[in-house]
Design goal:
single chain; two-stranded antiparallel sheet; 11 helices
Length: 319
């Protein structure tokens, strides 16, 4: 591709609106001289397509124009042939591993495009997404979903779950927040809910269950009592996330077993069963006594060593 002539004004640019953060491509509505930019001495402005405020050239597009100005390359036929020869044998297997996710990054041929097309404002996550909706609408796939797909793909292909730690940390924190909301709702409503007993007659009328109180003569409504419907999902959340009392060692049986193990040494691997501290201290005392006897025997052998005796005699009995 021929090198761009940056001495002339550009006909189309990318702008970024500071008021509504809209990113859009348009022809410049106003151009000013900018002598500080030697590579392209022009400053561009255009009316925002969303809010109507004046927007300046996007910073990343300024950097792109500067890259165009500084771009160099071979100009002669020999230079172009040498440059083409440098590409022989590339990409290597290692380079292919590094660049295999490029398509997912820019979305041109992303596999996720067919599953998560760009639909700004129509996914549940769009309400809290920080990507500009106007920019997202021009992409072939949802940027956030493509990133999520790419991270999981890399983690499973490389068999490295550390790539997923930030994602699943957020998921676990969200689950904990949901559990707290369920608990607060149950506490506010009560663990049991009551409602009048009713039935439908053959004529299709709804009849409320009532009876007469013999003591007071008043008519009372028969109430049906049921457990709070959120108790079951709360139990499932706790059991699936290992938050039950047994998992945390808070049941009476778990506490009793822990107390029984106190004062005992835990076995290592497939070693012998644990012993009490008293038995361990007794074995240590036996080992120390045997070590002292061994030291005494070693000292006695040293005193009977003929070489040592001769050396002591030559040096006046000094050791």
């Amino acid at each position: 591709m021929a090198k761009r002539d940056l001495s002339k004004q550009l006909e189309s640019l990318t702008f970024r609106c500071p008021a509504c953060a809209n990113t859009f491509d348009a022809a410049p509505g106003r151009v000013e001289d900018e002598p500080s930019l030697e590579h392209h001495p022009f400053a561009y402005f255009a009316e925002c397509t969303r809010c109507g405020e004046e927007a300046a050239q996007a910073p990343f597009h300024k950097s792109l124009v500067k890259a165009w100005a500084n771009a160099t390359g071979p100009k002669t036929a020999a230079g172009k042939a040498a440059s083409a020869k440098n590409l022989e044998g590339h990409p290597t297997p290692e380079e292919a591993l590094r660049t295999r996710f490029n398509a997912l990054k820019h979305g041109m041929t992303a596999e996720t495009a067919q599953y998560f097309p760009a639909r700004p404002g129509k996914y549940p996550a769009c309400s809290s997404c920080d990507v500009d909706h106007g920019y997202c609408a021009k992409q072939p796939a949802c940027i956030k979903q493509a990133q999520l797909f790419m991270v999981h793909h890399a983690a499973f292909e490389q068999r490295n779950p550390k790539h997923l730690t930030p994602i699943y940390s957020s998921i676990q924190a969200s689950i904990t927040a949901i559990i707290q909301q369920i608990l607060q709702t149950i506490i506010a409503d009560g663990v049991k809910l009551e409602h009048p007993a009713w039935a439908v007659t053959r004529e299709g009328d709804i009849v409320i269950g009532e009876y007469n109180d013999f003591e007071t003569g008043e008519k009372r409504i028969i109430m049906e009592t049921k457990a709070h419907p959120l108790l079951k999902p709360l139990q499932e959340f706790l059991s699936r996330n290992n938050l039950a009392l047994s998992d945390m060692g808070m049941t009476p049986k778990a506490i009793e077993q822990e107390e029984q193990q106190m004062g005992r040494l835990a076995p290592g691997g497939d070693g012998p069963p644990s012993i009490s501290l008293e038995d361990y201290a007794a074995k240590q005392a036996e080992s120390m006594a045997a070590l002292r006897a061994l030291a005494d025997r070693a000292n006695a052998r040293k005193q009977r060593d003929p070489v040592l005796i001769e050396y002591q005699q030559q040096n006046g009995g000094e050791q």
